Amino acid sequence: MVARDRAELRAALVTLDQRPGAHPRSAAEDDAGPARASSRHDRPVRAVVMTMGALHEGHASLLRAARAQADQVVATIFVNPLQFGAGEDLDRYPRTLAADLAVCAREGVDVVFAPKAIHDPPPLVQLSAGPLGAVLEGASRPGHFDGMLTLVGTMLHLVHPDLAFFGRKDAQQLVCIRRMVADLAFDVTVIGVETAREPDGLARSSRNVYLTPVQRTDALALSRALAAGVAASGAGAPAVLAAAGAVLAAADGVAVDYLELASPEDLGPVRSGPALLLVAARVGTTRLIDNISLILPTDAQGA
């Protein structure tokens, strides 16, 4: 089923719950988180995968993860204008709805919500990512995470999922969503799915289509840098940044925006234990991000 507006989405979800063997959700479940939580044992589990379209194998892996853990899978396809800043690629962001619907059908999605607009007119009230949205990507793209959270929060209210699946490639996005869900008491479980990569290591992204063949080769420096950082992690944080930085410095056609180590919990500074190594760079006119998890030593060598 494909829904193009909120009314069609509501109708599609009702139809989904009326399938043979499904225990319909009550009005209380749709309107109150605690009521939904208390009744999960006797009704289908619903999952959502939110996308901006231009679906690739990374999105397909999210849909498969959702399909494996839920009875009902809803995919959303919407290029969110709230998370694009002035001069960014909102207008040229790839829109491939027919192909996207084919991917969803192949992966067994029950409902595709592909609206023309979510907030029309634009909302007067938006969510704020707070300090989580002011660092890393947020420093380069002010307001990006506020717009993203506003859209994600709205989608969660519209779809009423039990599970929400997001890729770990957008690590800062995942941290922000998890904190929003925890801090604002959304009744949903957020599940991160490993980054999908091309055979040569390039993180899959809808923006990869912008790259020329030469630029695509240059872009491999990002994943090589992360691998070098992981290899050096036993020597501590400075060694990680030095090893990854050396790879990027030697790369042709790569303009680094940031290379940082951050806490996977709050994106703050980290010197030991679990950490994220994050990189953003421009290859030609295309801005790419990537990250990897690693463990920093706790002894004096890594301090």
Automatic annotation (TrEMBL):
The keyword ATP-binding applies. It comes from the Bacteria. ATP binds at residues 52-59, 167-170, 196, 204-207. It catalyses: (R)-pantoate + beta-alanine + ATP = (R)-pantothenate + AMP + diphosphate + H(+). Pathway: Cofactor biosynthesis; (R)-pantothenate biosynthesis; (R)-pantothenate from (R)-pantoate and beta-alanine: step 1/1. Beta-alanine binds at residue 83. This is Pantothenate synthetase. It comes from Candidatus Frankia alpina. The lineage of its organism: Bacteria, Bacillati, Actinomycetota, Actinomycetes, Frankiales.
